Amino acid sequence: MVGPFGLKPKGTMAVRALPLAKVLKERGHCVALFLPPWSYPQDAGRVYDEEGVRVENVAVAPRAQIPLRLVSRVRAFQPEVVHVFKPKAYAGVTQWLLWQMRRVGLTKARLVLDTDDWEGAGGWNDLEAYSWVQKKFFAWQEQWGLTHADAVTVASRALETIVWSLGAPRARVMYVPNGVNSLPPRGESRHAVRVELGLENAPTLLLYTRFFEYDLARLAETITRVLTPLPNAKLLLVGKGLFGEETQFLEMARVRGWRERVVNAGWVEMARLRGLFAAGDVALYPFDDTLVNRCKCPVKLIDLLAAGVPVVGEAVGQIREYISDGETGLLVAPGDVDEFARRVIDLLGDAETRARLGAGAAAAMARDYAWENLAERVERAYLTPP
Known about the structure:
The protein is an alpha/beta fold and 386 residues long. The protein is 45% helix and 15% strand. The protein has 16 helices and 13 strands. Helix 1 packs across helix 16 (371-383), helix 3 (89-103) crosses helix 5 (132-146) and helix 8 packs parallel to helix 9 (245-256).
C-alpha cells in the first residue's frame, strides 16, 4: 500500500489503509505500507511493525525524490498488488511511474487505486490554498489515475458513480466505505464526565466536528432555535476547525447570546472521545449538499454511530448510507433549519427513542461496517481480471 502522506496528522492512511492492512494480514496476506511523512517529518526513515504490517516511512528531503523512493521500496517488496491510496500528489506520481514501468516490463504488479475524496473542481481543490499549477496538476492526476488502474476502490456511492462515468467497467469498481475503528474504552462514568465539564443534568447537544463541511451561520441558527426554548440546554463542542473556524463559530454564539452555554473541549486525544461522546444526549451532524461532501465518507460520523450516540444528520451522500432514518439515527433534508431544530428538540425530550437509536446505530455499524467484512471486497479488487 502506498500513501500520499504519513499516518499523522492527516487521517486517510491511519483510519482507512492501516486498519484494512491489518485485516488483510489476518487473512493471510503479506502487507506493507510505504509512506512519505512530509506533514510529520519526525517519522521520516522510521520503519516498524504494527500487528504484522510493515510500515516504512521514506525520507522526505529532497521532496522531489519522494516518488522515486516510494517506487524503490515498492519494487524491493516484490508485491503482487500495489494499492495506491489517493490519486494525487506523491501517491499519484508513484502510480504513474509504476504504470509506465509495467508497460516496459519492469514490474508485473497489479495496480489498484483507492479514492476517498473528490480532489478536483468542486472538491479539495476548492478548499485548500493550492496554487493554480497545483490545482491543474491534481485535477489531471485524479482523472488519469482513475482511468489507469486495474481496479478502483471507492469510499462513497458518489465516487463510485463518478468512476463509472469515466468509463471504468462496473466489475472493476469496488464500493468500500470506511469501516469502524475501535476507540479506546472510556475511563470515567458518564456522570463523572458531565460533572467535570459542568454539564450536570443539562440537556446536551454534541458537536464533533472540523467545521468545514457546512455553513457556520446556518448551524448557528439551527442551534439558536434549539437552545431558545430549552433554557437549560448546553452545547458540547469537540474538535477544532481545519482553518480555525471555531473562532468564528464561537463569535456567532456570542452574538446570538448563547456563548456561555458552550462547553468547548477543543481537539482531544482519542482516549477521551468515548467519555465526551457519552456526555452528550444528541449529536448534530450538519452537512452541506456539495460535491466534496457527497463524495467523502465521514469518519467522525462513523465514530459517533459506532459509540451508540443518537445522531441527527443532514441527508447528504454517505450519511444516507450510514443512517437509516428512525432506526439508527434521524435524517433531515439538507439546509432545512426548521426541521433540523425540531427533530433535535423532539429527540432531546425522548430518552427512550435516544436509547433505541443509539443501540440500533452501534449494532448496525458493528454488523455492516466491520473491516473484516469490508476486506472481502478489497480482495475482489485484487483478484478481478483487468
